[in-house]
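YM 10:42: DUF397 domain-containing protein sequence, as discussed on the call
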Amino acid sequence: MVNRSAPGAALNWRKGSRSGDKNECVEVAAAGPAVLIRDSRDLAAGTLALDAAQWRTLLRSVRNGDLDGR
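YM 10:58: structure's back
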């Protein structure tokens, strides 16, 4: 689940609970209709914006193991 940020407010970035206190993960934030994704190790690298359908496709692919680097 992604919590939506109020328009004009700072983004509410969230990271996976399994990452704990480490910064070795991706973070997500909702900005209007988009879900933003960034690398917690390199915030200067920018963000990737996905619409709702793209976000669902990404989640489905992760859950199915389709993106495992095997």
